[in-house]
Design goal:
- The chain is α+β, with helices and mostly antiparallel strands and 99 residues long.
- The chain contains three helices and four strands, in the order αββαβαβ.
- It has a four-stranded mixed beta sheet with strand order 3-2-1-4, with helices on both faces.
- α1 packs antiparallel against α2.
- The chain starts with a helix and ends with a strand.
Length: 99
Amino acid sequence: MRLSQKTQKIIRDTVHEVFGIEANVKLFGSRIDDDARGGDIDLLVELSSITAELERKTMQLVARLQLRIGDQPIDVLVLDPSTPRKPIHEQAASTGVKL
């Protein structure tokens, strides 16, 4: 995984701050490959209950992360029970590494 322990903690703490302590976050995509270079930070946030203002909270999460870990590309997928599942969600859930 190409994220420092400090960055992983910042991501976990920020996800919990925005979505609550019950939220789980996984890193997926090129950043889980130690041999790859570059790439954006792809995150999957999994929620056990339906969450109001999902889009606003997702944008808030990205903005806070960019302020805290630096201005770099961050993509966030959020799954709650009401989210229609797509292939990208299944791939992220099955290949992602829990932070």
